[in-house]
Amino acid sequence: MDLINNLALGFGVAFTFQNLIYAFIGCLLGTLIGVLPGIGPLATIAMLLPATYGLPPVAALIMLAGIYYGAQYGGSTTAILVNLPGESSSVVTVIDGYQMARKGRAGPALAAAGLGSFFAGCVGTLILAGFAAPLTELALEFGPAEYFSLMIVGLIGAVVLASGSLLKALAMIVLGLLLGLVGTDVNSGVARYSFDIPELTDGISFLAIAMGVFGYGEIIQNLSHPDEKREVFTGKVNGIMPTAEDFKNMIPAVLRGTALGSALGILPGGGALLSAFTAYTIEKKTKLKPGEVPFGQGNIRGVAAPRVGQQRWFANLLHPAADAGHSAQRRDGADGRCHDHPQHPAGPAGHDQQPRTVLGPDRLDVDWQPDAGGAEPAADRHLDQAADRALQVAVPGHRAVLCHRRVLDQQQQFRHLDGGAVRADRLRLHQARLRTCAAAPGPDPGPDDGGISAPCTVDLAWRLVGVRHPSAVRQPAGSGRDPAVRGADAVC
Amino acid sequence: MALASQKDFVSGLMFMAVGGSFAWGAVDYEIGDAARMGPGYFPFMLGLILVLLGVLVTFNAFKSGPPGGDKIGALAWRPLVFILGANLLFGALLVGIPAFGLPAFGLIVAIFGLVIMAGYAREGAKLKESVILATILAIGSYLAFVKMLNLQFPVLPWFLAN
């Protein structure tokens, strides 16, 4: 019931004329910018962020969401019409989408991408609203071993996806891995194959390679033919609606893609591309109906399924509660390159926000809250003060251990930002952490007031069970620490 | 021994060259061993694997292939040089190359350079067409990227921009 109440509350806020207009403007702007080749949704959000500065917080959030989804769709438009993927996850759409466009079926391809995304986005949002908390727990359980296994699945998927010679597919995968190695090594910090060019230390963007392989290859190959034989796109896009048969082929593919995207979408990090590729692989492995166009030559299922698979992931990306502070989340707006949004600065959810800024039960006016009388976690202490009887978590200060816990980059970012005036009002990491361990931690069940105690140090300690201890890593803790790490030590 | 597939043969050579150069480059970094990998370990091993795969692809090129020898067509030098060159020219003109003492010419000049040079990728290109296209593109890009999106890059040549 809570779910329905909260959703109803959210819809109540969103369904005002003003907010719907903002959503529309956001989608329109997002699509317009996202259509430009090479500009993905993240770049679009970064560019259009200033446009939302003057708006009230809810309207700004709605508009940003609109921009995001609009840019997504814009990316698929260029992928289908001109064979240039607008962002990395559209690469799969290119394969069949462009072939459909060549056969004069660009309209249905665009519609399939759009409708599929819409359906999957709705289902994804519902799933997320219902299971956000347990899904987040699951995502936090993901460690290096799990990510490694996932990578292996992805690489095997790439072999399966390949048609033609297996040997050459393997060679191309190795070639791709090698190209991916250009840039700073995450473990040692050595800039590999960068030739002292600062741009190369960031690595070669996947998008640059995709545009080179798909777009430039196509352009040059096309120009190598004499004028008469050249394929020029002059036909108008007519008839957006897919035919009844298209729908019949599409619907099972969309459902499969949604289920798959929901499963893979939980994972923080590289979800979208993986979902899209896997969805396409699954479609490719299902049997073709008699008379259906083969994959790679313009099959509508090959357009719909990957769009759907990736879409589910974006719902996760947008949702602030899904995995706050994870790198996949921090990209938009909080990556140090753009300013904080003045109405909602980046940081732990709600750290300095006015009520009503975040939709949901506990950031509302008191009389709207169903459990306003419940325990307030941090009521008995000041912000910097540790809670009484708080268990000290032994967080080893070694870099490898911190990396393992995915805290290191966070700290580095904080350290990096400490100098800047922009984030001066931001919570320091230790404050943020104290915030997560509120009153009544430890084995004590807490006051019997029916309220649930906040996630606290005990939970954190359980999460640390699999973590390597300093003695297990190469270098003894305490030698060669940098100031950022020492900061974390002082907390613990 | 006759080649059954020229394409496979050349792609095998390409894999070997790329893998070999990556492995060669990795020697400069600390390689370490499997238990303690240095930054050079992974690229070194991958490079060797790629060389191995390249050798296999090359050998298979002698064994089987589509009828007709799977010939590589003539290289399309003209579009290749002009399209890629136009991109390089765009980058060089946009922000300049300090190392060569080339100042930044800015967006407008760079777009004209890009369009005119790319135009010559087609046989029978006309300068007039390219100039008209470049003018429209320059105005559109100026409005979209500079006016509306406020992207930060030089717009005018260095002697005009202040």
What would you note in describing this structure?
- Chain A has 492 residues and is an all-alpha fold.
- Chain A has two domains: 2-145 and 239-330, no CATH class; 380-492, no CATH class.
- Helices cover 54% and strands 1% of the residues of chain A.
- Chain A is built from 18 helices and two strands.
- In chain A, strand 1 (183-184) and strand 2 (191-192) form a beta hairpin.
- In chain A, helix 4 (57-82) packs across helix 6 (106-140).
- Chain A is globular and about 60 Å long.
- Chain B folds into two domains: 6-63; 77-148, no CATH class.
- In chain B, 61% of the residues lie in helices and 0% in strands.
- In chain B, helix 3 (77-95) packs antiparallel against helix 4.
- The relative contact order of chain B is 0.11.
- The interface between A and B is large, with 30 and 41 residues.
SSE topology:
The complex is a heterodimer of chains A (492) and B (162).
Chain A: H1 2-14, H2 17-35, H3 41-48, H4 57-82, H5 91-102, H6 106-140, H7 144-161, H8 166-180, E1 183-184, E2 191-192, H9 206-223, H10 244-264, H11 271-285, H12 300-318, H13 327-334, H14 399-404, H15 408-418, H16 429-436, H17 457-463, H18 483-491
Antiparallel strand pairs in A: 1-2
Helix pairs in contact in A: 2-3, 2-4, 3-4, 4-5, 4-6, 5-6, 5-12, 6-10, 6-12, 7-11, 10-11, 10-12, 11-12
Chain B: H1 6-26, H2 41-63, H3 77-95, H4 106-119, H5 127-148
